[in-house]
Amino acid sequence: MPFAIIDGDDVGNKIESRILANDVTGFVRTSKMIADTVDRLIDYTSTIPGVTVVSSGGDSILLQVAENSILSLSEALEELQEPDVFTFSAGIGQTLRESFIALRVAKSSGKRRVSIFAEN
After folding, report:
1. What is the pLDDT confidence band of residue 120, given thresholds at 50, 70 and 90?
2. How far from 63 is each of 80, 85, 95, 110, 114, CA to CA, in Å?
3. What's the first-to-final CA gap in the chain, in angstroms?
4. Residue 93: is its pLDDT beyond 80?
5. Contact at 8 Å (CB) between 37 and 7?
6. Using CA atoms, how far apart are residues 107 and 56, in angstroms rounded to an integer?
7. For the whole model, what pTM was predicted?
């Protein structure tokens, strides 16, 4: 069964800027926003038939996806983007490794994308 890896875009930069500014309130607010957004993504993706949450941590989520649910998941992830708040990239592949490679492709091609692994 294929896997999908979802990972927040530029999360480290958002957190680090708060730390460097010595902004405790901003750090807490940003961390909570990230955690809340990831929780919403988990809640929503787990309602898609054929999608199972395997693990989550920080700003990343690992899903297992039935073949016939890949399109539904991809479309849902595109709709769930919040450009002014929190964006993420996702990679989908037959193996964990392929999913990670697809995630790197999504991130390196501009972020805020869903990429499906292809050998070419």
Report:
1. low
2. 16, 23, 11, 22, 13
3. 21
4. yes
5. no
6. 19
7. 0.91
